[in-house]
Amino acid sequence: MSGFKWIGATIGWALGGPIGAIIGLALGSAGDAFSSGKYNPFLSEGEASNRKSGGYSAEQRPQTHSGDFEVSLLILASVVIKADGVSDPRELDYVRSQFVGMYGKERANKAFKLFKEINNQTINTRQVCLQIQRMMDHPSRLQLLHFLFNIAKADGMVIDEEERQIATIAGYLNISSRDYNSIKAMFYNSSDNAYKILEITKAASADEIKQAYRRKVKKYHPDKVEHLGEEHKKGAEAKFKEVQKAYEQIQKERGL
Question: Could you tell me which residue ranges the J domain spans (predicted)?
Fold first, then answer.
């Protein structure tokens, strides 16, 4: 399997609409293409009709696969990295290292080559995010958000421009402010971060703390993204551990 033909076997819905245009241009710039007649990189006519009419309902939404998540991640990572007008080498290295950890060196190198071509494009963030929102399930979108914060902090801190860009992306992805602030709190140091992660205040009772923890465990459990493949399930464990850490910190502070 030469060049980027590996991607054809793993991407489903992501190659239609604005994402399809971005990936198509990136593949063309990289000097490769899908084998003629073997794989259609655009949505079928029926799927295109669903997209034009407002997309799928939550019940109809097609299952997100590893490749769909991957190309969404590549595009949004480019948006965040360029938020401050500079592509920091540490952030680029973080993207590469994460892909190596998830997919292995060979596939990661091909993905990163594609990422560099995407990074040269001007991306309509709203259009891309609206496509993702229509097609990707909520747990996978939360995982995307967590990864974007990881990228932003790869150089040591999340700067204001990056945080504003991630907040904009979260809005387009239809991620609630509560979910957004919970994930954001995982990347900052403050006295009330543990409470923010659990989506409660310091006035919460012991029972409310336990209830909040159980809700978060259910929402952020790695099994929620097991359909993306083992590589992404492992990535979700970091987010899950932050919830556990926050709960343990509050317990310790209150002597529970």
Answer: 193-255
